[in-house]
Amino acid sequence: MTPYIDIHTHNSDTNLITRKILNLLLHKIEQYEITPHSLYSAGWHPWYINKYNIDFIEKEIEKYSSLPNIIAIGECGIDRAIDISIDLQKKVFLLHINASKKHKKPLIIHSVRAYSDILQTLNEENYDGPLILHGYRGNIQQVRQFAKFNTCYSFGSAIMKSKKNASTLEQTPVEKLFFETDDEDISIEKIYLRAAEIRKVSTEELKKQIEINFNTLWRNELD
Length: 223
Description:
Distance between the termini: 18 Å
Shape: globular
Structural class: alpha/beta
Helix content: 25-40%
CATH topology of the largest domain: TIM Barrel
Number of domains: 2
Low-confidence stretches: none
CATH superfamily of the largest domain: Metal-dependent hydrolases
């Protein structure tokens, strides 16, 4: 049976019908048990960067980015809803971009009211690797703006309640889609069920497409 793929979650519970990428927040990395057969992303969330020295942040990003079962860098990015300077947020975002380039691993990006900042930074750095905009709540025009990059869009619980988010999901190219639970108390099965309704396909068809997207993004590196 085709698994559900949860591309970004903070929930470590084992579920045999779900393949997940568990996000490790590097500011509390000692709280996690990293096991060799699980898949992870790791990064410094912008909410916590002002409590640590930037040299320490850089060392931790490099340390964990090099681990083989940490298959994506992040979540990282820019958040204009928090009281942390945009300059500092961009500096830390750049550290993740550099790690992504060095280790050839996708970026998982956190953006709140900052898609233009993210675009500007990626352009300035000539970023040409894959990236995933997690918890995507932008519009279809922003999907088109990000199309110059190898961008995928991960939709979460917002599709359950936001007509705007559901409309964006409906119009986003299917080969660029992922789904996630993030830190929400909702099953990935419910998100897929709603997404399949929006896309007017069966859940099984959607699962097969997302598995193709997953394998394409990581190009068989997980075999």
